[in-house]
Amino acid sequence: MNQERVFQVLEGPHVSEKAAIVADLNNQYVFRVAIDATKLEVKKAVEQLFKVKVENVQTLKVKGKVKRNRYGFSSRPTWKKAYVRLEQGQDIDFAVAE
């Protein structure tokens, strides 16, 4: 996978309370990824960018919420997130990503 696609696939970490709990219990990290990214692309991108071994990847689409504004209704965009489980002993430090 070329370097450009790595940065297109991974949009960034998804920081939430649930993501912190999953990271502590299951050695999983949650990333916001491109809507057209596959599990294999996510796995290769994480391994290449963070120099870790990925055990498996689970993806899901988060449907955009319908919001009301002064012009009527609009919807936020649908996006995709990936739960990435690392092999035993592997760790990602987001502060020191090379």
TrEMBL record:
Coiled coil: none annotated. One of the early assembly proteins it binds 23S rRNA. One of the proteins that surrounds the polypeptide exit tunnel on the outside of the ribosome. Forms the main docking site for trigger factor binding to the ribosome. Part of the 50S ribosomal subunit. Contacts protein L29, and trigger factor when it is bound to the ribosome. Pfam families: Ribosomal_L23 (PF00276). Keywords: Ribonucleoprotein, Ribosomal protein, RNA-binding, rRNA-binding. HAMAP family: Ribosomal_uL23_B. Belongs to the universal ribosomal protein uL23 family. GO terms for cellular component: ribosome. This is Large ribosomal subunit protein uL23. It comes from Candidatus Litorirhabdus singularis.
